[in-house]
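Forum: Protein Structure Q&A
Topic: Joint prediction for protein chains with partners

I've read a bunch of threads here and the consensus seems to be that you should model interacting components together rather than docking separate models afterwards. I'd like to see that in practice. Below is the full input, 531 residues plus whatever partners are listed. Could one of the regulars post the assembled result?
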Amino acid sequence: MLTNTDRRFAPLASALRRVAVSTLALASSVLLAAAAQAGGLEAPVIGCEQADEMVEITQSSRLDPSCEWTGGIRVVASDVTLDCQDARIVSTNVRYGIHIIAPVDTPLSNVTVRNCHVEGFLNCIHIEREGFRELPAGEEYENTFSNIVIEDGSVLNSRGVGLYVNGYVTDVTVRRLHIEGTGSSGIYLETGSRANFIEDNEIVNNGFRENGPGGQFFELAGTTFFFWGPGREGVAIDGSRDNVVRNNYFEGNSSGAILLYKNCGEFPDSNRYFERRYGSHGNVIEGNTFVGGDNGVWVASRMAENTIPMECTDPQYATGFVLDHADDNTVRGNLFENVTYPVRVEDDGTIVEDNEFVSDDPAHLAVLVGTPVRTSVLGLPVDRTRISGNQARIEGNQTPYRWVHGHADTTFANNRSFGDAVGFCEGEPPARGPFVMAIEFVQAERDDPPQREAPTLPTPRPLAACPTCRGDCNADGVVTVDDLVRAVRVALGEIDADTCSLVDRDNDGAADIAELMAAVDTALNGCVRAG
Ligand SMILES: [Ca+2]
Ligand SMILES: [Ca+2]
Ligand SMILES: [Ca+2]
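Posted by a regular:
Agreed with the consensus. Here's the joint model:
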């Protein structure tokens, strides 16, 4: 595990490593070419005379790393490995650095792209099933992609998304990449993509251009506006499901680390429009490290955002509001350091377990569950969240597990703060912009941007510790007969103490008489303040 200081110098270190590695690679390519001539099976090297052309890869190949590759590379066949040998692939006026592509009626499998350093394109790496927008419902996965691996390299300073996994693309593994400085999201998992693996990457300092703090123009109802936004996230999971995001390092991404949401069927008149059929369901986010920033993992990040400028085709249930869709996701075993809202939950069935939250800012939280508009207009609070086994050490915040606007059927068990079992209690709603991905907007003249500093959303204030209800097994704020029955069963050893951690205050795995009496006292007299 690298320390924070090491991380700060990671770009420099990786640049030095790249120089060293490309020197080695150059030497080894000479040796390997000799081996190939001697009857070895090494893939042929594509020479620098093609470095400014678009190169199409149909068989396993290596790049000569002694030149910069500027024409872009297309990988169009199965069973191939492209080894860039640490070559740099840099943008001139081409859209994609490496484009892995097959028509929708053609399966693609066993493609590996490794040791490529791709920089400055619209998308540095783009994986696409050509024609996917026209796939009929129910026939999206008849000719899938499988075992597509992108490993060991870097994606830097793309104009848009860094690495784009486009619609209905499956089984892509992205591992050990350094992804930095992208204009939009670092990695984008597009609608209908599924079962991809994002592992062991460093995803840092991305997302400052698109909807970013520098501001941009937009037109609405024939009027020109200028708006400033929060920028984009490290990983966007947009209507993409059953993915695993594991053991990555996130720091310094503009709007947050991982946002899960569903595109609302925006901009139907755009040539990029297609029907968005799937939510971001069943994803697993585990073993990652998140450092700093406003949002760590935000489940259903558009549930309560006003999307009116996006011309959503999904039905509005209130002016500007459509349902977002991100169910049954798991956030497990991650470390969050100094993140304002480490885990935000605005859709149902989320599991938040065995995470660790540390911070030196008392305004920071661990978990925040709840969503305003769906709750108040449709009477549908976030439900079936399971929060268990988490540990928090947030200086000045003894009770960092919070809900807002109501919640339903929450399981809350064995969550600790500075080692004590604590409750789940009401917090304060986070600040939101006037509409999705916007912090503030003004009417403006085209080509005459307002000259002022980027506005920011107000930061949250520290909250008073909330009462912990001793014996409140289901953490709903009252001790009922049901809670007491469960507490007694813990005392009798019939059920595990973790199922009612708020009776077992001293965390010895049992409920003794004093702990049972405290539960009874709470039932009779109400909750007591924590501590
Ligand atoms: Ca839902
Ligand atoms: Ca209760
Ligand atoms: Ca005990």
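The pocket of calcium ion (ligand 3) is lined by residues 504, 506, 508, 510-512, 515 (CB under 6 Å).
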